[in-house]
Amino acid sequence: MIARASRLSQLFQSFAARSPVTIVGLAVFLYASSAVVVRGTDLTASVFAFWRIWLGALMFAMVLVWRRGRGHAFLPAEGRAYLLAGGVAFGVNHLFYVAAIKATSVNDVTLINRLSPIVIGVLAAKFFGEKPGFRFFFGAAVGIAGSILVVLGGASESGGDLWGMFAAVMTMITYTLFFLISKKARDYMDATAFLSGALIVAAGAVSLFAAVQTVPVFDVTPRALLPVAFVALVPGGLGHVAMTWPLKWVPANLPPVLMLGLPILSGGLAWIFLGEAATAVQLVGGVVTLAGAGIAIMSRAGRQMVASREPLKAT
């Protein structure tokens, strides 16, 4: 079984090197499903975030033990500061994310988070020397405008909640920090090592928050934890690996542009499973969003980004 898992890991790494954008696209779809599941559960935001982080941390802790048996160190000696910073950013991000989803609509939260390409684009140019060019940023701006139409055309009863909007903004900021930290950390470790260490740190961060706020995290039934397990294992586990692994082949600002399609995907899932109907304006906004993402990716700088094939540095 271990040999089979190793073979699957090698196949996944090989496919990520050949088609990193496809792997990022899979991560985007998995992320879209996460918001709908969070919105549909009756658990409070703090309880959901606590168990989601801990389930993910336990899963990746088992991965670390398995890697140790294959001769890898539990965590690399270098780059541990990025693990600490990334873990805290991830823990805080998920606390705000679940709170935002609970307080406002799925589309509202995904819209605010689509502002991250501009922030990441500016910071990536400064810290990584990436210069996507005018057409790339123009496409990102068109995509964000389309996302605004998606939300303006909605009929969410909870839309406009001030706390929800604040939590959504903080979700975007902390996600931006986590994304840039993960990009930098890939110079010192592979995606699995980084995500494993970051989730363990995040579990400590949310535990401290729960203790200070006296959150009743153990007053929950096993059945109620099933949606949490799905978010932790599928969007949280497979999704984060699929998003982080290709970062050695694509720059920091390409995946967030692909994620401009999240409002469309999550909105469609919310319509199917939660009854959050889409309006004509939302549909137009969805087309504009996809057009903006296409402009960015098909620009000269975008094509060069997709063509990047920097090899994965093994640890």
SSE topology sketch:
Elements: H1 2-18, H2 20-40, H3 45-69, H4 80-103, H5 106-113, H6 116-127, H7 134-152, H8 162-185, H9 191-212, H10 226-244, H11 254-258, H12 262-274, H13 280-298, H14 300-307
Helix pairs in contact: 1-2, 2-10, 2-12, 3-4, 3-9, 3-10, 4-8, 4-9, 5-7, 5-8, 5-12, 6-8, 7-13
> How do the helices and strands follow one another from N- to C-terminus?
HHHHHHHHHHHHHH
Helix content: over 70%
Give the percentage of residues in beta strands: under 5%
Report the sheet with the most strands, covering strand number, pairing sense and barrel closure: none
* Overall outline: globular
Number of helices: 14
Structural key phrases:
315 residues, mainly alpha, disordered C terminus
Question: Mind explaining what this structure looks like?
Answer:
By secondary structure, the chain is mostly helical. The protein has one domain. 75% of the residues lie in helices and 0% in strands. It is globular, with a radius of gyration of 19 Å.
